[in-house]
Amino acid sequence: MDLDNYISTRIEREGMTKEEFWNGYEEFKIGVFLKEARENSGLTQEQLANRINTTKSVISRMENHSEDIKLSTLEKVAKALGKEVKIAIV
Question: How many Å apart are CA 72 and CA 18, to the nearest integer?
Answer without folding.
Answer: 29
